[in-house]
């Protein structure tokens, strides 16, 4: 692994008044700046869900972020969305993730593992056990799904039983403990963007009539139980939760998100989580509406409907709509993003055609900007 051309951000004394470059402390993690690398699926694990050495290089290159949140990681074989999505449910996966976290820490960074259960977004061809996906209700997607070889028609998921719900909660807690064993500084529960937790919260994917569906109190129950279990497993100060109220991704529908998410935050706020990671929406202004319901750290993200720039990220902090700002796609092309911010250097454009290729192209081959490199670095290492 070669990360010699990347470094951690400059010292606090040299950062000036840029809010993105000011320090911040989570309950168990001190951050040198307020830039969070958002979780992004990249599919560079092998077909057993074992992280590759290339992934260690990729994350270490981006260690200048105040905090890295990893790509979505399957907490169990039942939660897989893709075969080459990394997991945290086998010893081989845990050992390989240790190489990644060691590389990030050696480069001065901090990294949380995002636990992502696909729910109805899964497919038998994308699971190591060939099993049928499970979801709150037997409601299928209509759009084709990607597999290793081709696109296929979605399948109708199995409606989760009470026993299945208990098993899924326990699998998340076990994956969180595996994450800590693998060297992660904490975990983020993926409750956004159409994945399992979101499916329990949304109108069209949760048609249950038991204690996990129907009323608002019931719709939030799964999210609350899962978050409590993960917090019990590794400590609330090591746990973040990502939500995207009103996000229509993958055919999700939420007619009136406000009552659901206000009640969810009221139930979770007393736990003392590391942070809430909240994605704004052009229809429902989640950051503005929900900020009063969260007393802890709030990570804001606007990338679903507004491309994040240095100016838009700084505005979010100055307006006190968030304490930290997560940045997604620009981090693909700018491994030295924080250093570019500090040097007032331009951000490199993204080569979108290589997002999910299997090799280094479009992954670890984006160079640093000359202004963000230490004196004496070879010019060939820079953009």
TrEMBL record:
Keywords: Oxidoreductase. Belongs to the NADH:flavin oxidoreductase/NADH oxidase family. It comes from Murinocardiopsis flavida. Its cofactor is FMN. It comes from the Bacteria. This is N-ethylmaleimide reductase. GO terms for molecular function: FMN binding; oxidoreductase activity, acting on the CH-CH group of donors, NAD or NADP as acceptor. InterPro entries: Aldolase_TIM (IPR013785), OxRdtase_FMN_N (IPR001155), Oye-like (IPR045247). GO terms for cellular component: cytosol. Residues 29-344 form the NADH:flavin oxidoreductase/NADH oxidase N-terminal domain.
